[in-house]
Amino acid sequence: MEKAVLINQTSVMSFRLTGLSTNPKVQMAIFFIFLIFYVLTLVGNILIVVTIIHDHRLHTPMYFFLSNLSFIDVCHSTVTVPKMLSDTFSEEKLISFDDCVVQIFFLHLFACTEIFLLTVMAYDRYVAICKPLRYMTIMNWKVCMVLGGAMWTAGTIHSISFTSLTIKLPYCGPNELDSFFCDVPQVIELACTDTRITEILVVSNSGMISMVCFVIIVVSYAVILVSLRQQISDGKRKALSTCAAHLTVVTLFLGHCIFIYSRPAISLPEDKIVSAFFTAITPLLNPIIYTFRNEDMKSALKKLIRRKEGKEK
């Protein structure tokens, strides 16, 4: 009975997104900039996945997790950027309630899974650098598959719980979201009921996951840095390069999650800038960081290109 009442109270059939700007010239500039970012994200991350699949030398735990990261970044960017690009040419920028819910589900599925993946990658680097002789014993393929399945399962459970929290709330107006995509904090802010408990659950769930994983990652790299003091200079340089790349991605990605989900559902002017960076620019960093800074990836990529050129001839 209570469920039926909530459904009747939800009279909002769609939400109106404010977008990143209302200025036509600024909107057009945003469209071309983010279109370039999106295309580069797709090409770069798909190229990483294809290269890892085709080169047997890269069939190691590190590159298995890297291919997962690239796949997630493609999906994560696709959840929000195409809608934002199409809204550039729309005055109303509407998104239906159902589409909004779907966007929230997949946004949190890929974002949460990536948080767990970055944590697993930090553990993988810890084992590789601090326990190199036991690396393939500890990080065998069975362990990699279990960790991969666990992070996707945890991401799915988290996403279902967040989507359920959002759906259960009644929405009876207004329907304007001060963003360019649907996310839990902005949507629940429009609910016509007391959302304090929901906000507490959001902070305790997403905020806590982001903070705990960030601390685990920082501790892992602190232990790695201490261990590197005892290694020779060449090995130290390569390990530091890998760790620096990973920490760059972690800081930018988790920085957004901590900023957005570790506080009450209140819209701030900085939210749009942080979210734009999070959805469009951060997914592009993987191809740049892991390809241009990684000799193994560059070598495998050149080999793949030569192979394709040879087939064409």
From TrEMBL:
Gene encoding the protein: MOR28
Membrane topology reported for the UniProt record: Multi-pass membrane protein
Gene Ontology MF term list: G protein-coupled receptor activity; olfactory receptor activity
Localization per record: Cell membrane; Membrane
Domain of life: Eukaryota
Family named by the database record: Belongs to the G-protein coupled receptor 1 family.
Sequence intervals crossing the membrane: 28-50, 101-123, 143-167, 208-228, 240-261, 273-292
InterPro entries: GPCR_Rhodpsn, GPCR_Rhodpsn_7TM, Olfact_rcpt, Olfactory_Receptors
Alphabetical keyword list: Cell membrane, G-protein coupled receptor, Membrane, Olfaction, Receptor, Sensory transduction, Transducer, Transmembrane, Transmembrane helix
Any one of the GO CC terms: plasma membrane
Protein's recorded name: Olfactory receptor
Phosphoprotein listed as a keyword: no
